[in-house]
Design goal:
With 198 residues, this protein is an alpha/beta fold. It has one domain: Alpha/Beta hydrolase fold, catalytic domain (Rossmann fold, 3-Layer(aba) Sandwich). It has helices at 25-32, 49-63, 75-86, 134-143, 167-188, and strands spanning 10-14, 37-38, 68-73, 92-98, 120-125, 147-150. It has a 6-stranded parallel beta sheet with strand order 2-1-3-4-5-6, sandwiched between helices. α2 (49-63) crosses α3 (75-86). The radius of gyration is 17 Å and the shape is globular. 39% of the residues are buried.
C-alpha cells in the first residue's frame, strides 16, 4: 500500500448520523492520515444542524490553523454546508462530499446555501442512494458548485453498501495535497523566480 505523502495540510472527517464505525470508509481514511481529526457530536442520533455545525467549528478551532481538507458523509455534508454558510472565514480549502443526504428529509431544503460553496468541492453520488434521489443529487451538486462523480449502483456508499476502504477518497486527498502544495509554492516564490515573465 502506498503511504500518504507528507504535508502540512490536514484532514477533517465529518460523519453523518450515528457516526462512522471502525469499518466505514471514513475510519479507513482517517487511519491513513496521522493528524486527521474527526468531528465528534454529543448525540449522534439527533440531527441538529446548527449544533452539529457549531461543533464542527469548535473542532477546527481546537485543532489548529491547517489548512484543512474535509471529507464528509451523508448528513455530515449538510453540516459542513451549514458551517460554511455561517462562518465569514474558514481555513477549509477543499471538500469531498460522499453520498450527501437530501436536505428535504430533515426539513432543511431552504436552510442551506443556494449558491456555490466557498471552496473546491467534489460530490460523490450513487444512482441508487436511498438518502438522495439521483436527479436531486445532481441538482444539489450543481447548486453548490461541486464537481460531480457518479459511482453507479453504490447505495449509500457506506458499510452496508460494501464500502470499508474507499480508494477514491485517498486519491482525492493526495491530489488536493499536491494542489495546495503547488499553490503555496507559487505564493512563496521570490520575484526573481519569475524573471522569465519579463
Amino acid at each position: 500500500m502506498n503511504k500518504p505523502s507528507e504535508s502540512r495540510v490536514r484532514l477533517l472527517i465529518v460523519p453523518g448520523l450515528h457516526n462512522s464505525g471502525p469499518t466505514h470508509w471514513q475510519s479507513w481514511l482517517q487511519a491513513r492520515y496521522p493528524g486527521a481529526v474527526r468531528v465528534e457530536q454529543s448525540d449522534w442520533g439527533e440531527p441538529a444542524i446548527d449544533e452539529w455545525a457549531e461543533r464542527l467549528g469548535e473542532t477546527l478551532a481546537a485543532a489548529g490553523p491547517g489548512p484543512w481538507l474535509v471529507a464528509a458523509h451523508s448528513f455530515g455534508c449538510l453540516v459542513l454546508a451549514r458551517h460554511l454558510q455561517t462562518q465569514a472565514a474558514t481555513n477549509l480549502r477543499a471538500a469531498l462530499l460522499v453520498a450527501p443526504a437530501d436536505p428535504e428529509r430533515f426539513g432543511l431544503e431552504y436552510s442551506l446555501p443556494a449558491e456555490p460553496l466557498p471552496l473546491r468541492c467534489t460530490w460523490v453520488a450513487s444512482s441508487n442512494d436511498p438518502w438522495m434521489a439521483f436527479a436531486r443529487s445532481r441538482d444539489w451538486a450543481q447548486r453548490w458548485g461541486c464537481r460531480w462523480l457518479n459511482l453507479g449502483d453504490a447505495g449509500h456508499i457506506n458499510v452496508e453498501a460494501g464500502f470499508g476502504p474507499l480508494p477514491l477518497a485517498a486519491r482525492w486527498v493526495e491530489a488536493e495535497n499536491q494542489r495546495l502544495e503547488k499553490d503555496r509554492r507559487f505564493e512563496r516564490a521570490d520575484l526573481s523566480e519569475w524573471s522569465f515573465a519579463v
